[in-house]
Amino acid sequence: MCDKLRELPVDVETDEAGNQWATLPGRSETSVLIGGHLDSVPNGGWLDGSLNLLAGLEILRRLALEGTPELTIRLVDWADEEGSFGHSLLGSSAASGHLDMERARGLVWGDGQGLVEVLASNGVTLEAMPDSARQLAHAAAYLELHIEQGPVLETLGLPLAVVLGTFAVERHAVRFRGQAAHAGSTPMDQRQDAFAAAARLALEVRRSAVTHGGVGTVGRVVTEPGIATAVVGGCQLTVDQRHVEANGVAAMLDEVKRASAVIAGEERVSVEWERLWSIHPIGFDADLIGLAEMAVREVAGTAYLMSSGPVHDAAEIARAGVPSVMLFVQSLRGLSHTKEEDTRVEDIELSVRALDRLTALTIETCRATGGGSGSV
Fold this sequence. Notes:
Blueprint: H1 2-5, E1 11-14, E2 20-24, E3 28-36, H2 50-65, E4 71-77, H3 90-96, H4 101-105, H5 115-121, E5 139-147, H6 152-156, E6 160-166, E7 168-177, E8 181-182, H7 194-212, E9 215-224, E10 230-231, E11 234-243, H8 246-267, E12 270-279, E13 282-283, H9 286-300, E14 304-308, H10 313-319, E15 324-329, H11 345-369
Parallel strand pairs: 3-4, 3-5, 5-15, 6-14
Antiparallel strand pairs: 1-2, 2-4, 6-13, 6-15, 7-11, 7-12, 8-10, 9-11
Helix pairs in contact: 2-11, 3-10, 7-8, 9-11
């Protein structure tokens, strides 16, 4: 990515949160931001989210060849979008002013490394991260392209969609503590099996999501002592719950928390909950949604509108008051966060063309309305 940026007349910098910015200066300091991320989940795919940045880079290239743009165009690679420590959108939440510093300071990964320690090893100081908010000072709009990561567009036979907003999310670490004991000599009715409690809770997460029309996932489970010949004395799992409405995810969380207390009592173990991260549902800017519809119709013939279950950096930038919108491109078989993630080449081309057209429409609208920082 850095090598490709060197080919363009852009200024490149890394801010206090580790976000990397490439700026193509325009006739006005008012800026249109195009954003994405390069980090991935372990064994992730090739498009989430490098598509966002490579598409944005080609738009920078096109604009640079045409001369000085009317507005300043900025491409941003947000740091740790995927949330290595359970806190998604780390870099963009720092810029938006919504990074919970106390919670971030206490985040520790399974191997014992703390977030503060890992940040420092990469030249980032936690206390300085909120200073990255200065990067949004002259932003009139934020645009992001992403693969859908789900099966809706493929089911409908459509290549592209305009994203209306993102789901509410509650993400917690849940710890059950029982008693380790020998697997051969401990009768079943006398066990304090922390994993048995965790397994029952995982099914409750699933049942609650189905009941309330949301989604719920237990994505990580760690047992102690973690050997074949011992009853599990301790078990930690992550619970990720999402819903299009805030009261929906709140109902799911309350239901599963109450269930965990009942399960703990029946299994004779203790249970503790720790919030890792949460975000309210976010609606994107109505004017930009209209421009995105126009852009998608121009390149694909029809514009489908949908909400996003996955969260994206665009949600944090919208929370900061910058008008924001997203485009989705179809994911084959709805797969993402896996090596099987893929999208047809012709659909990728359409998505880049749609983002390019949306950028042009956004610039034209800002010029026509005299739009300044924080307005389309």
